[in-house]
What does this fold into?
Amino acid sequence: MRTKIFIYSSIVVITVFVFLINLYRIQVVDSEYKISAENNAFRKEIQYPARGVIFDRNGKLLVYNEPSYDLLVVPGTIGKFDTVEFCKIFQIDKKNINEIFSKHYNKYRPAIIEKQIPNSKFAFYEENLYKFPGFYIEKRTLRTYPKPIGAHLLGYVGEVNKIEIENDPFYSMGDYIGKSGLERTYDKYIRGEKGVKILVVDVKGKIQGSYKNGKYDIKAISGKNVTTTIDADIQEYGESLMVNKIGAVVAIEPATGEILAFISSPGYDPNLFIGNNLSKNYREIENAPNKPLYNRAIKSRYPPGSTFKPVSALIALQERVIFENTVFIISGGYNAGNHVVKDHVSGSVNLVASIQMSSNAYYCNVFKKIISDDKFKSAAEAYENWRNHLNKFGLGLKLGTDLAYEDQGLIFPSTYFDKIYGKGRWNHNTIISLAIGQGELGFTPLQIANMTAAIANRGFYIIPHVIRSIADEKENQIYKTKHYTGISPEYFIPVIDGMEKVVTGGTATIANLPGISICGKTGTAQNPHGEDHSIFIAFAPKENPKIAIAVYIENAGFGSTWAAPVASLMIEKYLTDSISRPWLEKRIVDGNLLNVIKRK
It folds into this structure.
């Protein structure tokens, strides 16, 4: 009897012990049952915020949001369903459905079936989802552009990758982030804050209502609205002038550093980079001729050509190696050893005339005086002083603009020439091409526009930027600070007089505009890959300038032929909101320079 009691007692104890062990495993050790229970009771839906709206300087919409929707499912909450009927109703490839389910390892985490369903399809989806318990729709937004302008400036939004998630815990797979332009630079302000909505669901995944009437829900907070410095009208007009041309245009308000227009051509319609066709359109545009995705305004290193001459004059005046009344006798060009720099100007040329008529030989003599200045121990030391002056104009270094991927341009240090020619074995004649903005120089259109603004301001610039204000955010003082060139204000007087005469009676009379004093400088930059680049810089009016502009058009020949008219028309449009020379506008708009025959 005792043996039987012991056996029965042991069985009871062991059974209770086994139950306790399993209960401990289920409730404490193994979380799968807990997850399953929770998912049978609750569903946490992420509430995605609308990104901030982007305006131009005058309050015109550049970017806004339209509702879109994602179709999701929690695999662990559904049973068998008719995939054929599902795919037929929602026009989804069955292969994609099977692939999603096979690769989705956590069956209690939502899986995205279809992204960015437009608002036009939402009602249809909502009407038919009751047939498929466990599937649900999550609200998102799509960026929309009322006008197809400013693609390189505004940038685009795309799905985050692994690196972006690792760098910012805010993001999870399936989230969207600014990939380029303003969307990238100011993403943390524009993106907003995600919310969470807790829903009660039954074992079939059907929503029963909000948990405790939303007591524990977290509302999404929309992103902050942004006002840019861009003038949408001048941006749109400039882009129309640059159709069928390769190059860039940057226009700046000199007194503030605010970028008025930012154009890289060819461009693309930013509306192509939204919705489900983003990847397909991106690949097509990426492989298109002439690289529409390449941002020439801040990435291309162009030789400045003769637009460089006003800065050379200012440096020489500051170093006192020339003066306002300095005259050089020009006869056919400048002899640099075995090399002759040709010049179309001849006779006695003073400083103002040298800019007006764009004399190459004059600036070769100026460069000789700068590099041979006897207050320096060597040509290398004088060169470094010259290079430092250029840096103070914002040339050859990153300006610190608020646009991503800015290039720093190119000005080699003296050691570069030491390696090529030998230390102490080179002089002004060895590098004479630099005198006329050729040779080992490469600046972005943004840098050249900023240089022009510094001249317009008579000696300072403010870092060019494209954001005027962000809602509830303090102004960034970096974009309020004046950066001085180190050139005394009085030296700008003859240089600016020369630039005014360029337009009224010099190399760019095509840009002359009665009633508005435009100060400019043409440039024709040598291009080893084809026809010369057409360049023009300008600011207007002469006193209290409102706009400074740089125009680069590749393979277009003389600066006066294409670049100068583009700049002049944009200046007129900005200052007067009208065009008095429709014949010139028509020639530029109709001009197609994409198939220019390259020089042999």
The first strand starts at residue 42 and ends at 47. Confidence is low (pLDDT under 50) at residues 31-37. The two ends are 115 Å apart (CA to CA). The first helix runs from residue 2 to 29.
